[in-house]
Amino acid sequence: MGNGQFHRGLVIIALAIFTTAPAFAGPPYVTDDPEPTETGHFEIYAFAAGTQTQDGNSGAGGIDFNYGAAPDVQLTVTAPIAFDNPHKARTRSGFGNLELAVKYRFLHQADVGWDVAVFPRLFLQSGSRHVGEHHASLLVPIWLGRDWGNWSTFGGGGCAFNNSGASKNYCQAGWALTRQITPHLNLGAEIYYQTADSKGGTASTALGFGMEYDFNENYHVLASIGPGIHNTGMNNQMSWYTSILFTF
Length: 248
Fold this sequence. Notes:
Blueprint: H1 3-20, E1 42-53, E2 56-70, E3 73-86, E4 92-95, E5 99-107, H2 109-112, E6 115-118, E7 121-123, E8 137-148, E9 151-161, E10 170-180, E11 185-194, E12 204-214, E13 219-230, H3 232-235, E14 238-247
Antiparallel strand pairs: 1-2, 1-14, 2-3, 3-4, 3-5, 5-6, 5-7, 6-8, 7-8, 8-9, 9-10, 10-11, 11-12, 12-13, 13-14
C-alpha cells in the first residue's frame, strides 16, 4: 500500500469512528488521550505550532512540561511565546496564555475496556498586550482511549468557560487513530471540531496527520500537519506542529 493510500485509509477510519461515537495521545495531535505521564517521570516538549488563515498566520512556541505526580495523576505547565502575523499589519509577539492543568485517569482499560480521564486546563491571562487572550479561561474535557496490538485510538472533548469581551464559551471534540509502524516510528490521523470561540465567529473542523519518531527512550521528534475542512478562510486553512520531546 502506498503512502497516499495509507493516509486516505487512516482518514476514512478516523471519520468513521468520529461519526459513530460522538464525543483530544496529546502532542503532536490536537486530540488528547487519557494516559497520564508515568509516576515519577517527566515529559518535556520544546514545541512550535502555527495556523494559516486568509488574514495571515498565528501560533506559538515554548515549553510543555508534564510530570507524573502520582499513579493516574499528571501535572502540566505550558509556557508559550505567541505570535500574530497578519497580512496587512506588522508581526506582534509576546508571552501568551500560561496553562496549568491536571490529568486524572479514573477508569482503566484492564477493568472496563477503555481508559478514561478528565483533564481540566486553566489558561491564565496573557502576559502581552498584543497576543493571546487577555482574560483567564477554563477548559474541562474528558478523554478516553484504548490500545490493541500496534493500534491506538483515543478522543473525546469538552467545553470552555471563556466568556469575556469579544470571546465566548465554546466546545470542542476530536478523535484519532494511530499505528506503530516500526519500533521507532508511529503514524496517525485525527479529525477535530470546535464551535465558535468569539462573538461573530464560526465553528471549524480540521484534519491532522501526525508522526512520532523515537531516537531512543529519552529523545523523540514529533510533527503534524493538516488542513481545515469547514469555514477554512476565517479559522484554519492549514495548521502545523513540531516538537522535540525529552522523557526521563
